[in-house]
Amino acid sequence: MTIGITGATGQLGRLIVAQLKSKVPAGDIVALVRTPAKAADLGVAAREADYTKPATLEAAFKGIDTLLLISSNDVGQRGAQHEAVVAAAKKTGVKRIVYTSILHADTSGIDLAAEHRTSEAAIKASGIPYTFLRNGWYTENYAAGIQGAVAGGALYGAASDGKIAATPRTDYAAAAVAVLTTSGHDGKTYELAADKAFTLAELAAEISRQTGKTIPYTNVSVADYAAGLASHGVPEGFAKMIAGWEVPIAQGALFDDSKTLSKLTGKPTTPLADAVKAILTA
Question: What does UniProt give as the signal peptide span (predicted)?
Fold first, then answer.
């Protein structure tokens, strides 16, 4: 069985390839990337597969049995990009698609979920057997905020006491590898998140514990949070988008206590303390 991985040179993709190589022969793995030269260090075959160039997708997918479609990071364009991937997969005879979606994509108030809903629908409509990996937040998403909190003396946000079941990318990679290398996942949708959720106040407390500094969590308005992000160099449009996510997060959009992720991998997710330590020592 040949496994093709789109976005294999991305942060999640690299972790998946590395873990997958411990489960299956490297010769059974194909990195599907925009620039094959950048995949030279992965130790697997690489083919050009550009979401915006359908011809490259059809050539790259030939002989691929299982396709792991790691969602594009081109927000606003990825719905169409993923549809192109699905069309090429169907045309070339891909037997199975595993897709990285977002936690509770069908109900999430986070605006990113809309493109994931479109993508899931396209995959279902293709008739190709599928598995949806609805990944929750990565704790790495808070890396800049954690470093900024240490430097500035406070952690800022607008998510109030919303519970966030985030865990490091390596845990999500392990879940993907489990699904790619075992049977019984066709037609399944997995809501993937940390075993234990945290609030931003609890994140601030953990930062304080590890640094020995008193770092409180300061909840601000969405507008003020966006302005604060922009003042630290985040492009204004992106800053408003990030700040806007805080509203559904406060309402529970990133909470899940099913422990589906750890059930898939057979081990607990990474504790918050370990995730914070990794960020602080990076």
Answer: none
Collect the ranges in the chain with pLDDT lower than 50.
none
Question: Cα dihedral angle (108, 90, 82, 189), rounded to 10 degrees?
Answer: 20
The superfamily in CATH containing domain 140-164+195-256+266-280 is UDP-galactose 4-epimerase, domain 1 (3.90.25.10)
Q: Which of 264, 126, 188, 180 is nearest to 1 (CA)?
A: 180
Contact 208, 215 (CB under 8 A): yes
Residue type, 125: A
pTM over 0.85: yes
Would you state the pLDDT for residue 29? 98
Terminal CA-CA length for the chain: 37
